[in-house]
Design goal:
It is a single chain. The protein is built from 14 helices and seven strands. By secondary structure, it is α/β, with parallel strands linked by helices. The chain has two domains: 39 residues, no CATH class; 292 residues, Alpha-Beta Complex (sialyltransferase cstii, chain A). Strand 4, helix 10 and strand 5 form a beta-alpha-beta unit. Helix 6 packs parallel to helix 10. The radius of gyration is 22 Å and the shape is globular. The structure holds 2-acetamido-2-deoxy-beta-D-glucopyranose (5 copies). One 2-acetamido-2-deoxy-beta-D-glucopyranose binds next to loops. One 2-acetamido-2-deoxy-beta-D-glucopyranose binds next to helix 14. Belongs to the glycosyltransferase 29 family.
Length: 356
């Protein structure tokens, strides 16, 4: 009996240590950044809560950033697609935890949230100088954007000049500009990438580009921390070989808020939150994530290069390289059917203009 009581007391002591340690850490965080000791609880009804209440729950800097997105009145159609829940798309070192609580990202693990990876996010964000929309874009109140997919449909369409005429040009992964200017244009405002898809050859460097990093796993954040700290990168833990050197300045890099990807997966593509063990979990393609990003920062969204030719398995998958459609159709990590269905809805409802 005595022994049992002793075990109980020991267990209680350990629990107290763990909880107290955690609380202390949290409080320290709030204290250091917000000058208050009680963390504001995330509202479980964040989706339905009114705008005023929502704004009150966000730290002041995040409210300012969100207001900056609202300088241009949205079309009613956009509003209905986005709901009241307009997300500032990039994480900032000083308030990402608070923003995550507000968005509900603290309840999801990567790739769609920050749960259990907070320290990795903190480390990676500590290497970045700023989290603003790029300075050039801040001055434009109503942004006309084009999202350039990497689809083979762009070949020989000479859309380059048209694409370059937009305020904001969003590209993705390693879709090259050099050598394809006539078909895809020269300018790149944002480029969405992850460690396995970011350019590492300096030939692709563009000083006017902001790289938006999509984080899928803690390793990606460690990679960013290491590579910006000039450390040697081990290729362990990646889907395929990641970039081993960084061609962009740290001031050009942002980390995408996982809420954007989560919204794409669950609200727009209606992916289940759990997949059977035998099945690979499906994630949105970078293209769909880029479109969601565009809806959050643009007044008008046009698309190019998003059409796939499913009838010819030998047709080119991309406007560059030799990959064919059959490779895309075998991809187990995406649900192309769901994405094409959603794109068709966007186009049919005139939410976007499709150039190709
Ligand atoms: C594009 O044009 C080039 C040169 O005119 C030609 O060699 C190539 O086959 C064309 N590609 C497609 C997909 O039409
Ligand atoms: C970057 O932007 C500046 C100013 O708009 C422009 O003069 C320059 O040519 C651009 N550089 C590249 C590589 O596009
Ligand atoms: C596709 O390519 C394969 C091998 O290159 C060939 O055998 C097949 O006939 C082609 N199919 C079509 C529809 O062109
Ligand atoms: C595409 O195929 C051609 C000929 O088969 C080859 O020379 C070229 O290196 C390939 N390009 C890429 C990007 O794989
Ligand atoms: C892909 O999404 C569609 C709904 O758009 C669904 O019917 C289908 O089962 C999904 N496929 C997989 C493999 O998850």
């Amino acid at each position: 009996m005595k022994r049992i009581i002793l075990v109980f007391i020991l267990a209680a002591a350990v629990m107290y240590g763990i909880l107290h340690g955690n609380l202390w850490r949290n409080n320290f965080y709030w204290l250091s950044f917000y000058g208050q000791t009680s963390p504001v609880r995330a509202s479980p009804s964040y989706v339905t809560s009114g705008v005023t209440i929502s704004y009150n729950q966000l730290p002041p800097t995040a409210v300012e950033r969100r207001n900056a997105l609202d300088t241009c009145l949205l079309k009613p159609a956009f509003e209905s697609l986005l709901g009241v829940d307009k997300i500032y798309p990039f994480l900032c070192a000083n308030d990402f935890i608070r923003v995550a609580e507000f968005q509900g990202s603290n309840k999801f693990e990567l790739p769609y949230g920050i749960k259990r990876a907070e320290q990795f996010f903190r480390l990676a964000l500590s290497r970045l100088q700023n989290c603003g929309l790029s300075s050039e874009e801040d001055s434009i109140p109503c942004r006309r954007c084009v999202v350039v997919g990497n689809g083979g449909v762009l070949r020989n369409k000479t859309l380059g000049e048209k694409i370059d005429s937009y305020d904001v040009i969003i590209r993705m992964n390693n879709g090259p500009v050099i050598g394809y200017e006539e078909d895809v244009g020269r300018r790149t405002t944002f480029r969405l990438s992850y460690p396995e898809s970011i350019f590492s050859d300096p030939i692709h460097y563009d000083p006017n580009t902001t790289v938006v990093l999509i984080v899928f796993k803690p390793r990606d954040l460690k990679w960013l921390w290491e590579i910006l700290g000039g450390q040697k990168i081990s290729a362990k833990g990646f889907w395929k070989k990641p970039a081993l050197n960084m061609i962009y300045k740290s001031s050009q890099i942002r980390i995408l808020d996982p809420s954007i990807t989560r919204k794409t997966a669950y609200e727009w593509l209606h992916f289940p939150t759990r997949f059977p063990k035998k099945e690979k979990p499906k994630h949105p393609t970078t293209g769909l994530i880029a479109i969601t990003l565009a809806f959050h920062i643009c007044h008008e969204v046009h698309l190019a290069g998003f059409k796939y030719d499913f009838t010819d398995r030998n047709s080119s998958l991309h406007y560059y390289g030799n990959e064919t459609m059959s490779q895309m159709m075998q991809n187990e990590y995406h649900n192309i059917t769901a994405e094409q269905k959603f794109l068709k809805k966007l186009i049919d409802k005139n939410f976007v203009v499709n150039l190709t």
